[in-house]
Amino acid sequence: MSIGKRCMAEFLGTFWLVFGGCGAAVLSAAFPEVGIGLLGVAFAFGLTVLTMAFAIGHISGCHLNPAVSVGLMVGGRFKAGDLLPYIVSQVVGGVVAAGVLYVIASGKPGFEIGGFAANGFGEHSPGGYSMTAALVAETVLTFMFLMIILGSTDKRAPAGFAPIAIGLGLTLIHLIGIPVTNLSVNPARSVGPAVIVGGWALQQLWLFWLAPIVGAALAGVVYPIIAGSDQPAQQTRAAATA
Predict the structure, then answer these.
(1) How many angstroms separate the CA atoms of 180 and 36, rounded?
(2) Measuring CA to CA, which residue among 15, 41, 14, 11 is closest to residue 26?
(3) Helices (H) and strands (E) in the chain, counts
(4) How far from chain centre, in Å, is Cα 143?
């Protein structure tokens, strides 16, 4: 599959992740009396990844996340030469999704942008968590997410079930991390809302690049040690993100 087609798939998949996950948070989470709440938003993010993993996993690997691409590269599953095109496609997909979501959300009378599902720490954390807590949470949760991806897409794992494990894994990670940072584990997911909100969201964006990349890279080192280093380099059957 050409790099152009794979990048188109990554753009579309990341668009769906940000539009679906952040859209659930912005439009549905607090809807009067029948809002989906934290649990619903967590499932929304998980479902975007699960559905896209089945839809485009065979095209691009369905990374949808710069941290996933970095982790797979470090783990020997993804070519370094393809990293930059993937990251650009993912970030652009996230920004376009946030823009479309803004057009929809702002169509309601009395609309106020608020946090717009942006990631943050300190006074911009949903639970008021500190920068240190946010840094640790994002690093550890991204590490575990990549361990799930690397393990479930291992050639020795049961074939065809990786999207389910990855989607449910992302759901669980959101259940843990939403109160801390609104949960990122995905720089592309963070950039989109931050561009719309501006100000503090852009100022704090560094953490939501640094922590996921570090956590993913660590997983790319640790998983081969646990699983054995004699696996041939391969592109994953289906990978995903956040």
Answers:
(1) 19
(2) 41
(3) 9, 0
(4) 12
Nearest CA among 17, 9, 18 for reference residue 167? 17
CA distances from 232 to 26, 50, 173, 226, 228 (A): 43, 26, 29, 15, 11
Residue 1 confidence class, pLDDT cut points 50, 70, 90:
confident
Predicted confidence (pLDDT) at residue 241 exceeds the cutoff of 50:
no
Cα-trace Rg, the chain? 17
The widest CA-to-CA distance across the chain, in whole angstroms, is 59
Angle 70-80-172 from CA coordinates, rounded to 5°: 20
* pLDDT of 158 above 60: yes
The two structure tokens encoding residue 201: 């969201």
Buried b (16+ CB within 10 A) or exposed e, 152-165: bbbeeeeeeebbeb
Q: Which domains does the chain have, with CATH numbers?
A: 3-107+116-227 (1.20.1080.10)
